Amino acid sequence: MGRINVDSAFNAGAYVSAQEACALLGVKRPTLYAYASRGLVRSVPGARSNGPRLYAKDDVLRLKSRSSARAGHAPVAAGALRWGEPVLDSAITSIGPEGPRYRGHLATTLAEEGVKFERVAELLVNGSLPAAKATWPAAVVDVSTMIDDEAPALARIGQTLASLATRHDAARLDSVENVWSMVVALPAVFARGIAGEDGREAPLAARIARALGAPESQAHVHAINAALVLAADHELNVSAFTARVVASSGARLDAVVAAAFFAFTGARHGGAGAAVEGLLRATERSARARDTLREWVARKEAVPGFEHPLYPKGDPRGSYLLRLARDLAPTAHGVVLASALAEAGEGELGILPNVDLAFTALAAALARSGKYEGIGSALFAIGRIAGWVAHGVEQREAGYLLRPRARYVGV
C-alpha cells in the first residue's frame, strides 16, 4: 500500500477504520468483512495488538466506483480514472497476477532470461521481439558537462532531456531512433566521463554499471538489465497516460518523453523512491523493522514500498528484483534493511513489498560507498522511457485527440 508508489499510489495514501470503510461503501460490517475475506479490500492490524483492523482506502474507493457503475454512464466515466474500468484500447501491455506482459511476453521471464533491454524496448514499440541484438544509435551528445553535479540523479535526467531537446532540429527529434540515442546518453546522470567513444557500442546495462562504479560482472549487468526490463512499461500508469495525451496532440516524441518524465517525478509516482529511502532511514537497523512499520500504520499512513492494487498477492517484479539485490550484496546496509522490512511486513502486517522497495534495495546493492539515494528512481525512469515511446507511437497511430469531459460540480 505504498503511499507514493510508482504505479499504485493510493488516492489518499492512507488506511481507514471499519466504520469509515462501511460509511464510504454504504454497507454493514459483515459485508465489509466478506469483501476483505474475498481479497477485494485489504486490511492490516491496527496500532495496538488485538486492536481493530484498518482498511486500504484506495481499495474501498475502487470498490465503491465499481458498485456505482451500475447506476449509469456518468459514474462509470468518473470511476474509470480511479483504478476503474479500462478507458482505451492498447496492444502494448497487459497486467495479470504474474506481472506485466509486453505484447504477450511475460516481463519477469524476459528479465530472468537476460533478454537485453534494447530488444525489449523494440518489442514494445514495434510489436515483435527482434531475433538479433538490437543496436541503437550512438549517444547524440556528451551531456555529462551540462548537468548539475549536486542535483539528485532523477533531476539530472530532466536536465539531460532538456539539454538534448534544445540541441537538435525538430525533424530529427521526432523519431524513435533519436529517442534511443537520448537514452544512450542517460548513464551520464550517474557519473561524468562515460559518454565517450569506448562506451558507445556497449549495452545500456553495462554502461550504467560503469557509471555507477559497480563491477561490470555478468551478475551486475544482468541485475541492471533486469531492472530496466521490468521498469519498461506498466499499462496506463500516470506517466504513460501523460505520454498518450501529449502524443494525441501531435507533439514531437521528445516532448512526449519529457512530459511523461516530469509526470513520473511526482511524489505519488516515480518519486516513490524518496519515501522508501525515508523508511529505511527511519528503520536504522534491521531489528527495528517491525516497530518502524507499526509506527507508520499507527499514524494511519500507508507504508511506502509495500502493496500494489493490481497485485493483491504480491508484486512479481518486486520479488524478483529483491532476490537479485540480496544475491549481489547481501550485507549492504540498504539491502539488509529492505530485506528486514519485507520480511516484517509480510510476517507481522500481512503486507507485501512492491517494486519501489525492490528498486531501492537494488540501488543499495549497486551503489559505491553505500550512497544509493536517488539511484533507484533514476534507473526506473530510464527503463520506463521504452514504455513512454511505445504509448506515444501507439496513440499517434490511433489518430484521435484524448480530450475527456468534466462533470461540473461547482457553484
What's the total number of strands?
Answer: 6
Ends apart, CA distance between termini = 35 Å
The backbone outline, from C-alpha atoms, is globular
The low-pLDDT segments are 1-13, 195-199
- The Cα radius of gyration reads 21 Å
Strand fraction equals: under 5%
The residue fraction in helices comes out at 40-55%
Number of helices: 19
Strand order, largest beta sheet: 1-3-2
Order of helices and strands: EHHEEHHEEEHHHHHHHHHHHHHHH
Features:
411 residues, disordered N terminus, mainly alpha, three-stranded antiparallel beta sheet, 19 helices
Q: What this model shows, in words?
A:
There is one protein chain. Helix content is 52%, strand content 4%. It is mainly α and 411 residues long. The protein has a domain at 15-80. It has a three-stranded antiparallel beta sheet with strand order 1-3-2. It is globular and about 60 Å long. The model is unreliable at 1-13 and 195-199 (pLDDT under 50).
Offer a quick outline of the entry.
The chain is mainly alpha-helical and 411 residues long. It has helices at residues 18-25, 29-37, 57-68, 73-80, 107-112, 117-126, 153-165, 170-173, 176-185, 204-212, 218-231, 238-248, 253-264, 272-283, 289-298, 316-328, 333-349, 355-366, 375-398, and strands at 15-17, 43-44, 54-56, 93-96, 99-102, 105-106.
Q: Layout of SSEs?
A:
Layout: E1 15-17, H1 18-25, H2 29-37, E2 43-44, E3 54-56, H3 57-68, H4 73-80, E4 93-96, E5 99-102, E6 105-106, H5 107-112, H6 117-126, H7 153-165, H8 170-173, H9 176-185, H10 204-212, H11 218-231, H12 238-248, H13 253-264, H14 272-283, H15 289-298, H16 316-328, H17 333-349, H18 355-366, H19 375-398
Helix pairs in contact: 3-4, 6-19, 7-13, 7-19, 10-11, 11-16, 11-19, 12-13, 12-19, 13-19, 14-18, 15-17, 16-18, 17-18, 18-19
